[in-house]
Amino acid sequence: MFVNCRSYMIYFLANIIVTREGQLESGDCQDRLKVVNSVAPIRICDNGGWTDTWFAEHGKVFNIGVYPYVETQIEIFPLNCRKDRITLFAENFGDKYSLKPNISGWDRHPLLEAAIEYMKIPKDIALQISIFSEAPAGCSTGTSAAVTVALIGALDCLSAGRMTQHEVAYAAHKVETDLLHLQSGIQDQLCSAYGGINYIDMYQYPYATVSQIFIPNSTWWELERRLVLIFMGKSHSSSAVHEMVISELEDSGPDNPKLEKLRKTAELARDAVYSADFNALGRSMIINTEAQRELNPALISKSITEIIEIAKQSGAIGWKVNGAGGEGGSLTLLCGEKSSQKRDMIQEIEKANPMYKSIPVYLSRFGVRTWDV
User: Fold this and answer.
1) Alpha-carbon dihedral sign for residues 246, 252, 258, 261
2) pLDDT tens for residues 276-289?
3) Closest CA to 134 of 119, 126, 118, 146
4) Is 85 helix (H, G, I), strand (E, B) or coil?
5) Do the Cβ atoms of 252 and 56 come closer than 8 Å?
6) pTM, whole model, 2 decimals?
């Protein structure tokens, strides 16, 4: 095929003309400096949730960090190599856009934008930030916390010094509470930062210690085999659910019997896992779910009740409404000894409602991880 070389060169040069500010007028260069990656787990089976809040003042939470991960990838370029200093790609939404400087308030994805603002990006580089989560948004598995933890962990690699896991968790918590003014406990961020199986003792909101529960591989593998995560098929806003419960509890004091019952379930779950007593773990999950119902009946939806009944008939020995509860969200189930019953149970649940979906989960031995290439 004949090509007009002169016309081609004019077209080529027109696309690499540099403006007086040193940026490319059309088309960005590909002179990438490096790529930073990070992953962070979500959490399930949060016995004692609700006691890690400001109105509870002190609390105890047991939770488990699991795959699927939230993933962040940051491509770093010289500042004069890109038209826009920061480009954000929220892959789950198919939404790619540039963050505009000197504009007050948040644009399309406040959580992501607030985390970027909080971390104070060095001014001599340009970034393209991609974020992806296998877990559905609003799944009640601390996904938003995992997104923030993964993003902050990656952004921390752009400057000297490294934040500890605890510091990453608390930075993520501040983004939600201080910058976005959302209701948020602390357990989601801590679980995502640390990973594994955790016993969290919040001695005075928001300050807490994290004791990771280390168990033999055989117990770890058996727990992983027995766990099932069921997504209800629609998301919910945990902050909105928090507002509903807070209106009833904020004046009752931190030693309200309803909160004390929830705190106790975290201890029961911790002790059960240490002793590899899966029946005891299942009982702690059931007690916690009923304690959530006592907080407010609306926390246990009709869909959750339907799934629990199917699970009972299929030999499940435990069930825990994840996160704040309410409409939508998800449920953690603990199955019995027979793997075939677990598979039959999942099939029956998904048959009951096409919106119900089993999300495969695997225990995460690590929390937030970052590396560059």
Assistant:
1) positive
2) 999 999 999 999 99
3) 146
4) coil
5) no
6) 0.89
